[in-house]
Design goal:
single chain; alpha/beta; Rossmann fold; 2 domains; 6 strands; 48% helix; HAD_sf
Length: 219
């Protein structure tokens, strides 16, 4: 069945995950004192585990419990901003090529509301048919309801939609469970040491988006 729509994560796919990493590190240091080395240890261990919430792990490691998680994220969300260097140019090029090929474009991303402003600033917003930003729609991945909303709004069967993300646990697995095709992008918060199962989990596995339109067309 031919792919007629593509949904994209934002962090690690269209923009660097460094924006969130900078924001959460700064937020932690406004609540306590955290060294870059100790932060990086938790961060890397999380990437390798590909399970659970990084935000919760950081709270428990540096703030002692989850009691201040809401406060931490309120601070982080104010600083969770993409700069010009964070945008992956191959992401924009990929969106344009897929749109020109007649595909609908969706976003399924755990991001603050200001991410929409950045998409507008960089000329991506006009390419998007469904804007699924967690802070706007009220769902967070891997909640199946988030993916179901995208399927509904794109008005296509799940089998005709391909989801593109950089996490197995929050992107590939929940999309597959609903019958969507999947792409695993191995950058950003992707597991740096993937297993054979990880490498075989998605329909397409890539390290960037340069050849993705052609790979999708060949499915």
């Amino acid at each position: 069945m031919r792919v007629k729509a593509a949904t994209f994560d934002i962090g690690g796919v269209l923009y660097s995950d460094d924006a969130f990493k900078r924001a959460i590190f700064s937020a932690l240091n406004q609540l306590t004192s955290v060294s870059q080395e100790s932060f990086d240890q938790i961060y890397l261990a999380h990437l390798k585990s590909q399970s659970g919430s990084l935000r919760s792990k950081l709270c428990e490691a540096f703030l002692g419990s989850l009691d201040k998680k809401s406060e931490l994220m309120a601070i982080a969300n104010k600083e969770w901003l993409f700069n010009d260097n964070d945008q992956y140019q191959d992401g924009k090029d990929c969106l344009i090529k897929l749109k020109q090929a007649g595909l609908k474009i969706g976003i399924i991303a755990n991001q603050p509301k200001v991410a929409a402003d950045r998409l507008k600033q960089d000329g991506l917003f006009e390419l998007i048919d469904f804007l699924g930003i967690s802070a706007i729609v009220g769902f967070e991945k891997p909640d199946p309801a988030f993916f179901k909303l995208a399927i509904k709004e794109l008005s296509l069967p799940a089998q005709e939609i391909i989801h593109i993300g950089n996490r197995i646990d929050t992107d590939v697995n929940p999309a597959k469970a609903l019958g969507m095709k999947t792409v695993w992008v191995r950058r950003g918060e992707a597991n740096p040491d993937p297993s054979k199962d990880d490498l075989a989990a998605a329909d397409i596995t890539v390290s960037d988006l340069k050849s993705l339109p052609e790979l999708i067309n060949a499915l």
